[in-house]
Amino acid sequence: MPWIVSHSLRTLGLLCTLIPLVNAQAAEIEVAATLLKIIESVEIPAQQSGVLKSVTAQEGSIVDRGQVIAKIDDDEKRMEVEKARVDFDIAKRESENDVNIRFARKSLEVASAELSRSEEALAIAEKSVSQTEMDRLRLVVEKSRLEIEQSEEKIAIAKLTAQLRDAEMRIVQTQLEKHAIVSPIEGMVVAVFRREGEWVQTSDSVVKVVRIDRLRAEGFIRNEEAMIDLIGTPATVRVEIPNQEPIEVTGKVTFVDPEVDPVNGQVRVWVDLDNKDLKLRPGLRASMTIQSKS
């Protein structure tokens, strides 16, 4: 009897020792079959039709975001830009030219003064100025006022015309800029579809660039493990490469598929990884450990 009690106590102690280990293991999700994939891949199109004047990108070269990788012949468009700029300068000068307004105001001043003198003379001596002359002087004053209004209206229209020419110039300038084909992402050129001297249409793919400084590890976990909110959870990805030291990279879970695979009952998960030293390559198989929040 004492032996049974002692054995039971030892068993209970062993179970108490194992419980924390089980809980610690439950806090980790092991993903054996994991594949490294590309996050961003872009086939960069031509935004204007024309002959490719140059293609500087080559397969295997690294390009920066915003770097010019090809150019479409833009000689004709440059001349259009120059013409639009001259048209804008002319319209701007016309909108700033107030000579006619100043002349009309001066004419009104003179005509008003002459009319005032005639009215004073007429007040002193009746019939010193004929009615016809007074009507003519009043007409000159009114004409000068209307000329001021007309000149102001012309200036307003000239300003609107200058705005129109400015918009036209910016449109042509934007079209010119589209003759330069630039990379929207930082990455490696993996394909060049068009070469210097070829004609391209708008939307024709010219170069394909993939981002390799940031990769995605994709794997599958059991449905019951995916019930936990894993978004933002840290994870460690381990890559085994023959004849090399294993590579371990840390990242975070960025996606948990809401759909369960009906065949195996598993759920797809993504972990995004930094690959600034370019040690990892898309297509490599790896294993992954996710630190669950439970």
Strand order of the largest sheet: 1-10-13-12-11-14
User: Treating each run of at least 4 consecutive H or I residues as one helix, how many helices?
Assistant: 5
Low-confidence stretches: 1-9, 11-26
Number of strands: 14
Quick structural overview:
This protein is an alpha+beta fold and 294 residues long. Helices cover 42% and strands 31% of the residues. The protein has a six-stranded antiparallel β-barrel.
Please explain how this structure is put together.
It contains five helices and 14 strands. It is an alpha+beta fold. The strands form three sheets. Strands 1-10-13-12-11-14 form a six-stranded antiparallel barrel. Helix 2 runs antiparallel to helix 4 (about 130-175) and helix 3 (about 100-125) runs antiparallel to helix 4 (about 130-175). The longest helix is centred in the middle third of the chain and has 47 residues, at about 130-175. The chain starts with a helix and ends with a strand. Mean pLDDT is about 85; it is low at about 1-10 and about 10-25.
